[in-house]
């Protein structure tokens, strides 16, 4: 009697994917679809400086009831995945300043942005494969849906993203995969194509139905997406900044400050950033070591930063009068303001608050 | 095992989390780190980041306008 060789059951290798997690519903669903197929997923969230996040709500009192959570972190926790948050704000400047594929309706370089992010994820994937071999990552997933966004999510642009990012057929879009050519994970049998989706267009009903099936009933739905560059008013302020500087450049502080306060530009060479409430006051206080600031000392009032340089005493008094206009003493004959330079030297200045007709609507950025 | 401190004051979400993550990547399992922030969102975000990445939150504390989160580093993961 011959003995049969003992049979060893070899478990198939669990495949691993990097997911681009924005914090919105689509990337959340894409991860769920992969998890359902037994794929190990870890998330990556890129910080560009333009991200719409809970911090804006954290600054303003009127938003105190809004959620202050970081949506990407919250999503990762709901999905039970690790999340790597990566600061790409410095490298991202080139995407904003020189988008090869141009802007969308505002200063949003959506197609270049997506190529850039998938490229960053591809580099991470390659690095992880080098460092960790089979414990590295096999492919990248995104929540992109064909036809959902006019600039970056069109049938023609999907292959551009795959190609120009360097991800090629290691980029899988689980929500729209059936509308697109087969990718490596499908061909290799790591992922079952028949269980992927064929969502397309701007109709969100299929996503809502899938969310319901997964039992997801709480997710972020920010109007205009998760990027300030899609916002008209924000883009106008950024364009104003470039115009005032005669060059298209910015620092991280510049773009953070565009999210806060009233921006009033009485002259091309300077603007006032005036807080609208206590929370913004506190936020702007952090910048008093970089900017000359003005606040009222004889009555409660806002804190204002001067971005640029005041060229005369007349301009200083004009700026002070505008700040006084937004204080509790706006109807008083005189308000005393405190002008502080970045080194901490303070000067008191009595001024008559500006009247409404002395603040031109054209100065409002 | 050693204790470390990270000054993340005046940084807005998600920078306190990013700074925390980057510092954690340089530390050893069992080390502790106190992160000091002025962004109130950090009170939720840093513990959330710790939970999903396998680090223990030892204490969260609000002192005036400051938030302090102390964590203990868990198992290292691939630093992407």
Automatic annotation (TrEMBL), chain A:
Domain (NFACT protein RNA binding): residue spans on this chain: 261-364
One Gene Ontology term of the molecular function aspect: transferase activity
Family annotation (Gene3D superfamilies): HUPs
Keywords, comma-separated and alphabetical: Transferase
Origin: domain of life: Bacteria
Claim: Transferase is one of the keywords in the record: yes
Pfam families in the cross-refs: NFACT-R_2 (PF18297), tRNA_Me_trans (PF03054)
Family annotation (InterPro entries): NFACT-R_2 (IPR059101), Rossmann-like_a/b/a_fold (IPR014729)
Keyword Transcription regulation: no
PANTHER family according to UniProt: THIL AANH DOMAIN-CONTAINING PROTEIN, TRNA 5-METHYLAMINOMETHYL-2-THIOURIDYLATE -METHYLTRANSFERASE
Protein name per its UniProtKB record: tRNA methyl transferase-like protein
TrEMBL record, chain B:
Domain of life assignment: Bacteria
SUPFAM superfamilies recorded: SirA-like
CDD domains per record: SirA_YedF_YeeD
Domain UPF0033: 4-72
The family this protein is said to belong to: Belongs to the sulfur carrier protein TusA family.
PANTHER family: SULFUR CARRIER PROTEIN YEDF-RELATED
Protein name: SirA-like protein
Lineage summary: Bacteria, Pseudomonadati, Pseudomonadota, Gammaproteobacteria, Oceanospirillales
């Amino acid at each position: 009697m011959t003995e049969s060789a003992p049979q060893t059951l070899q478990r198939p290798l669990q495949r691993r994917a990097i997911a681009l997690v924005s914090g919105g519903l689509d990337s959340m669903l894409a991860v769920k679809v992969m998890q359902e197929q037994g794929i190990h997923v870890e998330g990556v969230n890129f910080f560009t400086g333009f991200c719409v996040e809970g911090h804006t709500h954290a600054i303003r009192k009127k938003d105190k009831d809004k959620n202050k959570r970081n949506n990407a972190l919250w999503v990762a926790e709901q999905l039970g995945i690790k999340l790597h948050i990566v600061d790409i704000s410095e490298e991202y400047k080139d995407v904003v300043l020189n988008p090869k594929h141009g802007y969308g309706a505002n200063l949003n370089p959506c197609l270049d942005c997506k190529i850039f992010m998938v490229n960053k994820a591809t580099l991470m994937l390659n690095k992880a494969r080098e460092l960790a071999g089979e414990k590295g990552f096999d492919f990248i997933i995104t929540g992109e849906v064909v036809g959902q966004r006019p600039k970056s999510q069109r049938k023609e642009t999907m292959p551009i993203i795959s190609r120009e990012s360097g991800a090629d057929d290691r980029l899988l879009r689980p929500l729209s995969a059936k509308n697109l050519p087969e990718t490596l994970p499908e061909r290799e049998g790591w992922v079952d194509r028949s269980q992927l989706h064929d969502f397309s267009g701007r109709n969100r009903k299929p996503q809502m139905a899938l969310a319901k099936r997964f039992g997801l009933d709480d997710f972020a739905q920010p109007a205009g997406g998760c990027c300030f560059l899609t916002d008209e008013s924000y883009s106008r302020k950024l364009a104003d900044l470039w115009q005032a500087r005669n060059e298209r450049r910015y620092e991280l502080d510049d773009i953070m400050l565009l999210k806060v306060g009233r921006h009033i530009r009485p002259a091309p060479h300077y603007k006032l950033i005036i807080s609208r409430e206590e929370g913004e006051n506190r936020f702007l206080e952090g910048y008093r070591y970089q900017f000359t600031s003005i606040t009222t000392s004889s009555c409660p009032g806002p804190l204002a930063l001067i971005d640029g340089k005041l060229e005369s005493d007349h301009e200083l008094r004009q700026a002070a009068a505008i700040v006084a206009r937004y204080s509790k003493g706006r109807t008083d004959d005189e308000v005393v303001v405190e002008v502080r330079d970045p080194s901490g030297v303070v000067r008191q200045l009595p001024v008559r608050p500006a009247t409404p007709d002395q603040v031109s609507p054209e100065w409002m950025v | 095992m050693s204790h470390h401190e990270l000054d993340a004051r005046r940084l807005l979400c998600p920078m306190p989390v990013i700074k925390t993550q980057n510092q954690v990547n340089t530390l050893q399992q069992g080390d502790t780190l106190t992160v000091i922030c002025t962004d109130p969102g950090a009170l939720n975000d840093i513990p959330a980041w710790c939970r999903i990445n396998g680090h223990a939150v030892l204490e969260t504390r609000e002192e005036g306008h400051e938030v302090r989160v102390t964590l203990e580093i868990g198992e290292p993961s691939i630093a992407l």
